[in-house]
Fold this protein.
Amino acid sequence: MEIEPRLNILILIGLTILLGTAGSRLFKKFKTPQVIAFIIIGFFLGDSVLGIINKQILSSFSFFNIFVLGITGFLIGGELKKEIFQKYGKQFINILLSEGLLAFVLVTLFVVLIGNLFFDNTNFVWALGLLLGSIAAATAPAATTDVLWEYKTRGPLTTTILGIVGLDDGLGLILFAIASSISLAITGTNAIAIPKIFLHILYEIGESIGIGILGGLFLSLTVRKIRDKYGIITFSLGIIVFILGLSKLTECDILLSAMIAGVFITNYIPRKSKEVFEMTNELMPTLYILFFTFFGAQLNLKNLTLPTILIAAVYLIGRTVGKGLGANIGARISKAPKTVIKYLPWCLFSQAGVAIGLSILATQRFPGEIGNSIVIIITTTTFVVQIIGPLAMRIAITGAGEAGLNITEEDIIRESKAKDIMDTTVPLIYENMSLTEILKIFSETDNLYYPVVDKSKKLLGVITVDHIKNSLMTSGLDSFILAYDLMEPVIAKTSSDLPMTEVQEILSRHNLEYLPVVSAKDEVLGFLERRQISRKISTKLIELQKQAESLG
Amino acid sequence: MELKKYINKKLTCFLKAKEKEEVLLELINLICDNKEIPDREELKKAIFYREKLMSTGIGLGIGVPHVRIKGIEDLIVTVGIGKQDIANYETIDGIPVRIVVMIVAGEGQHKPYIKFLSLIVSKLKKSEIRKKLVKAKNEEEIYNILSS
């Protein structure tokens, strides 16, 4: 029986999300960024191996790739606040130019050197070198930001990476335009004057900025008046998609338009935009699974020959050395923090959508051997850097001490157990303590709830401030009323290993303000009070913020 | 809160027992015979456990054994007057106990329990009340003295 095609695609999407999620969980155990899992799964599902996700399906999803890339650009723009530009602007430009241009130069030279060994036509080799060099300048924004978000990073290295990956696609596009016009001229296919190309590029960039600003302004004016979160997310998505569509229609840079819209709203309506970015961000995990799996599926490694393998190898070497060395030089020139100088060179290896897109563009402008070689080389190298890039980045962001600094209250709760948050200094009240003794403890501490224990510290009950207040009417009985008389029974208790998410669930289910933490023998190990939980989490967040600030 | 609401004629008595443990059992039985107590053994255990923590002989010849247990809906108060001093009832001031007021409350009755305890103790601290109680001729009189 044949399955109806649309249903087939739905099954495929479902399967992709499920496999991607399962794979990323497995990879997490080996401390490997999830993006690698998605790409490898996609590669196996694609034409290279199983052929389940074929070219036809992939082409029907091309709009989806633009959408995800656009949302990524928008979110990156959201990170680039006025203060960041003031603080890091010069640094961004220095690093961007040195890493992008050095990668361009080295790849071009290396390809020319090796290419001359295999091909007689020098012009052909130079054209190949220039085109591959220009493609080498771009860094994949989606793969890079996915790793940053997965490891919840924060600090100068993170900010610099975001700034660079947001901008070096633009540099890649400019270099590609120049390289292709030179290549067209030297290969004799078609000659276009270089000044004309520059004008065209400037026009395209201007268009992207214009669309981004207009879209950002429209989005700001709209969401400013909306209070409900569903309204905010639907309007935001609608406007972002519109910006992407308009950029595609006018053939300008989609990523740049979306990024400018993000930059605009984060600076124009800083507080409200936080909600927009937070909600948009929530969509990303699912979108990225599909995006990278489809990406992996389109990597075809079937047509490799010895020259292409060797050129791919020198491309990788040239790009890696160029980007690494360039980033290091740029960071030194702009006197960036030590962590940026040391670790940024390891963070710019990813190459994906833009590089593949440019290689496809190359096949259109240079039909024949140049175009085909570029597609094969870029596909092969993308496969390699997409495995190495996220791994290198993980090591770098961890080494720089920025991983885990960008976490929210929910993250802390999700990652904590009762023992991480509980108050171990809560005073224990023994059952035979008199009201006089209890009042003394009460006056010396600021707790609202106290566990009552027997002599072996076994939990018997809890005394609340209310109980103590009520007992104040028993004048003259202070030495005769005991903790045993005042305590209330324990409604719920927990073990120290229970995740905080479950602790919160217990507190809500029983409508409790506190929860004693006990051992297997029922001995009191600590105490959780709602307000103390919030206090502890806030302290932790402030500590992490200070830690991130201290890095640069 | 009025004491009258919780003092019950049926739950007042002249104690036959002469020693603390027996007195406590006598009052527990009186409660169990007149009120629905879900678990007599639990009540007994709780009363004796509380006494073990600290004697409820609060001085001036008064004993106030009290406890909160599961399954009790409203305060139960029983009053026992000893014809003679009750033996083995440790007190703060060394004056032997003659008046015993046993209070049994539900687990969630923290506020009325403490309030009643406070009211009954302040009443019994008046010497004329104690004298009247010790001299009372019958249960009716005990009830009237405490409810007035």
In short: Residues 28 and 41 of chain B are 10 Å apart (CA to CA). Residues 3-147 of chain B form a domain with the Mannitol-specific EII; Chain A fold (CATH 3.40.930.10). The longest strand of chain B covers residues 76-86. The interface with chain A takes residues 50, 53-54, 56, 58, 64, 66, 68, 70, 92, 107-108, 110-111, 113-115, 117-118, 121-122, 125 of chain B (CB under 8 Å).
